[in-house]
Automatic annotation (TrEMBL):
<dbReference type="Pfam" id="PF00117">
    <property type="entry name" value="GATase"/>
</dbReference>
<keyword id="KW-0315">Glutamine amidotransferase</keyword>
<dbReference type="InterPro" id="IPR044992">
    <property type="entry name" value="ChyE-like"/>
</dbReference>
<protein>
    <submittedName>
        <fullName>Type 1 glutamine amidotransferase</fullName>
        <ecNumber>3.4.-.-</ecNumber>
    </submittedName>
</protein>
<dbReference type="InterPro" id="IPR029062">
    <property type="entry name" value="Class_I_gatase-like"/>
</dbReference>
<keyword id="KW-0378">Hydrolase</keyword>
<dbReference type="GO" id="GO:0016787">
    <property type="term" value="F:hydrolase activity"/>
</dbReference>
<feature type="domain" description="Glutamine amidotransferase">
    <location>
        <begin position="18"/>
        <end position="175"/>
    </location>
</feature>
<dbReference type="InterPro" id="IPR017926">
    <property type="entry name" value="GATASE"/>
</dbReference>
């Protein structure tokens, strides 16, 4: 499977995504939008992954990126949006990126909604999981999407469009060094609130890191299985 990711921020690593791709012997390529890279030819992409970032730092390319995500969805590609990527995916599907009531940072429990475990993209994903967060924005739920998960701080945590498009507000891709960087350099960039609990010791939560990685591996393997059965499933506009 040909995986391509859109990088909105130089420090937004792909972490567990790269580990999964290597384990399955898939190709992995990047467009570093922050560095001025050109977008790829969709004909060479099976799975598009949109990573996180800071919206106000992406103004030079964000509209083009959203249009490209929309094109990928309509072409029947598998699409995974993470953090800002989930917000931009929501915009591509007709939702809106909006400020969240509460910023979230650190590890917080995520609960799947009733029936969410039956969705093809969440096969094998536990009903409750503790995931890592670092965000101050959220999204309105696009029409036609299935709302899959929530936290106490932010209702819209995960959603699906059809059987091959998924948005995740959390960071299941992040590894210990990414958390350590955020705790050391970025913890004070979010407004202080009841759910901004990031601290350096969060990088040492091997139990949470292991389960978050397992959750992401389930999602990616589910996408892989769906794409193997039906490589293209174009959406008619």
């Amino acid at each position: 499977m040909r995986i391509h990711y859109l990088e909105n921020l130089a420090t937004a690593g792909i972490g567990n995504i790269a580990d999964w791709a290597r384990s399955r012997q898939h190709t992995l390529h990047a467009t570093r939008l922050h560095a001025g890279d050109a977008l790829p030819d969709l004909a060479r992409v099976d799975l598009l992954i949109v990573l996180g970032g800071v919206p106000q730092d992406c103004t030079a390319w964000i509209d083009t990126e959203i249009a490209f995500i929309r094109e990928a969805v309509h072409a029947g590609k598998a699409v995974l949006g993470i953090c800002l990527g989930s917000q931009l995916l929501a915009e591509a599907l007709g939702g809106q990126l909006v400020p969240a009531t509460h910023a979230e940072s650190g590890w917080w429990p995520v609960r799947l909604r009733d029936g969410a475990q039956a969705h093809p993209l969440l096969q094998g994903v536990p009903e409750s999981n503790t995931l890592f967060f670092f965000h101050r924005n959220t999204f309105t739920m696009p029409q036609g999407c299935v709302w899959l998960a929530q936290t106490s701080a932010c209702a819209h945590q995960m959603y699906a469009y059809g059987d091959r498009v998924l948005g995740i507000q959390a960071h299941p891709e992040i590894q210990d060094e990414g958390i350590a960087y955020l705790a050391m350099h970025k913890a004070d960039s979010l407004p202080v609130g009841p759910y901004t609990g990031l601290r350096p010791s969060d990088a040492g939560r091997a139990d949470y890191l292991f389960r978050a990685k397992a959750m992401l591996f389930h999602v990616l393997s589910n996408m892989e299985a769906i794409m193997r059965e039906a490589p293209t499933n174009a959406v008619r506009s």
